[in-house]
Amino acid sequence: MDDKALLYLHLPKCGGTTLNRVIEWEYNPLRIYSIDPSFFRWSYYKLGKWPKERLAKMRVFKGHMPFGLHRILPQPATYITVLREPVERVISEYYFAKHYRLHPQHRRMQSLSLEEYSMTTPHHNLQCKLLAGLPGPRDFLDGDCSELHLETAKQNVANHFSLAGLTGRFEETLALLKLIFGWKISHYASFNVTKVRPRKESVPQSTLDLIAGRNKWDVAIYNHLVPIFEHKLQSYGEAVQRELDEIRRAKSLRLSGTGLYVAASTIRKGVSRLYSAI
Q: Does the predicted model carry a pTM greater than 0.85?
């Protein structure tokens, strides 16, 4: 995989911040293009203006973006992503925006219930839309989703992705990434976890059904990819368990060690984002 650029398609509220910090330790921050999470449209389209020579120097491109960046790169590339059970993802997204004061939708969320948000957001079926990479009426997050998006997303993952991991099985996802890419992951901590939110089990079934119906194409692509993930795990056999043991040891650092890791990760993130913004 050393000859290929790594394209991490970060699906929002799918454990991506934690994976971003892992990636920033595995690669030179000056060879990582990090799409700005607040101005991701501008940051993504900016890449189309980069000269081929600069694009060719980058080892990693990561952030909120649709499938398709490989088409403008002069070097070969492979994708990775992490999906989340769609109803869980919407619940997490809603409560993160509701309680995080710097979120651009924070004020709006104060007057919306979970049900109202689920039925009015244009970002429904977001995972399927981004994996399909088909243009919407305004941009790659808006508009309706269809069976065309689903079938396109399936083909894109089958033909271009080294791994589509799962948030609910995040450590197993990391174990596979170690095996596929030779990552070390000597330190590991969780970032940007939405803590102020109800458990899915405590949400009324009618609300869960409403969210699932509104995001039926996300449900379909998720259900399609879960057995593929299972097959990937099985293909690596006992090596997955060995890597899982290493990851869990990396996570069980003393508190002081974890604090140093978080601080150093913040610095590496800043270096990558600064270089990307130039």
A: yes
